[in-house]
Amino acid sequence: MSPERAWRTLDHANSARFRPGDRLRLEGGERFAGTITLDEGEAGNGTKPVVIESYGSGRATIAPRGTSGITVRNTAGVEIKGIKLVGDRTSRREGVGVALRNNLPGTRRLSHVRITNVEASGFQNGISVGADEGADVGYSDVRITDVSVHDNLETGLVVYGPEFRAERPAYAHSGVRIEGVRAYANTGDPKSIERNTGSGISLGSVLDAKVVRSVAHDNGARSASDAVEGPEGIWVYDSSRVVLERNKSYRNRTGSRVDGGGFGLDNNVSSSVMQYNLAYGNDGPGFLVYSGKPTGAHKNNIVRFNMSWDDARKLPEYGGIVAYGTRMKSLDIHHNTVVMRTDGLASTAQAGLRPPALRLRDGMTGVRVFNNILATDGGPLVEAESPYVRSKVLLQGNDYYSTGRWALTWGTDRYASLTGWRAASEQETLDGRPTGFSADPCLSGLTEPVTEVAGAAAGAESLVPGCEGQVPLGVDPETLGVELGPVDYFGNEVPSTPVVGAVQPLDTD
Questions:
Q1: By CB neighbour count within 10 A (0-12 exposed, 13-18 middle, 19+ buried), where does 78 fall?
Q2: Where are the domains of the chain?
Q3: N or C end: fewer C-beta atoms under 10 angstroms in the chain?
Q4: Which residues form the Right handed beta helix domain (predicted)?
């Protein structure tokens, strides 16, 4: 019960019954074989949690033998701090670094979970929070911060719950905040063909969640080549009121011909926002909004003030921003900056397959796309599967710029100028007046290669307009009845008359 009289093994710790306020402290820098399990009836509460933490210098390492590192089952009131978890070969197939599981019946969520300064590698999943079979609800008041989840088989960080029922929407988890998480090199399972593996951060069955200042990169490299679903860097499904904000997602891969993108709002997501994020160099889309199920539950979502740079590297059938799906409705895409180049895509370019800055497929209604910068080096600016009427999909005030030929596809027709497309489609008009531009936004990212910053993620500076005072004004948001949000990509206040793109000019008054 003191550093001088410490228990020698985790087996001894597991024989103890933990009560509110108890602390299990592991000596920093030491390696402990085995696992820790907290079961129903143990643990604490928000004011007196059970704490598992390191003491002394550095982090203690938990090294389980073929199983999970820390399991919290049917209980909460737990804080895990400053611990490193390393799995073995069997753990990579069957274990989780930190696993929170609830299969209790009833409607009361288990409250108060904190996971801070934890590293988990070598498991099936790095960290997972789940409502298992038999439970309708899982956890609330969950905070996962300053965590590294890497080199796991399936997912770095995953939250999941029971199957979504559109006729009676319910969500297993609530009040989830994920901040400062680094999810990388989670490879994917080459043997898993019926479901996606290899994502960085995946959230399902959550209500009121936020993913902030997190990074997902180089995930999915070994996901199955014939999988029906692929991985994403950071994505959400079967959830409502989720915010993905100020994150980066880059160089994520897919082994198959699906997904492999940066960010995604997938099936049955509602009232959610992707804002102030950067995606680049992904195999699939930078930002995907998708509904594959006819539930009508995919609605009222926003994609704003994001940047996509050279995405859809492997799969040009996607693009920088991609939206489509069955019975998807009420989607706003505005003030994003997308740069799409064919550099490095020689084989696909020769075959005529160039990823567009914006791709719109069928199945949507109530979609508004306005005040974005869509820029390419000769590839298509927009590819729309159908010649959408304005009542279903409306484009206004966007800047369509190409350093090569100007190209846009609208259903079966192709256009070589904004004027020609506007006249034929009645898009890019407002009260009978023309909107939209083909002005040069002066983005160095259109000609310069994607460069890394000090060996880490590339910055967004190359997608900042370089011609001061020449960036065109978009359509007046008040005219559209749209709430823009308070700031732009860099946190600058959005003016009452905003310019196009993710970056707004600084107020010099």
A1: buried
A2: 3-471
A3: C
A4: 191-337
